[in-house]
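Late entry, written up from scratch paper. The run itself happened at the end of the previous shift, but nothing got recorded in the book at the time, so transcribing now.
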Amino acid sequence: MDVDTPASLKLQGALPSYPQLAWRAQVSYNQGATPARPATCWRIAGTREFNYSLSLGWRREAWQLEGYFSQYPEQDGPTASRAPQEQQ
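Output as recorded:
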């Protein structure tokens, strides 16, 4: 049985004084491994992801402009699935 630890959060809104401008922020975290294997394989087979994105949009009549930034880094292998007390 695989172990999977997901979590995510999304926030979005607009400024009351400037409703044409809207924003969104998203964050997600996931850590997974296969605990049925021996301890050495656990460390080799693990993955850890911390993803985030930001967007900003502007709309006025027939015009719309949107900017977007995102990062999807992932760690695989020994450093990803070590327990905190094992990291040095």
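The helical segments are 39-45.
(Scratch paper discarded after transcription.)
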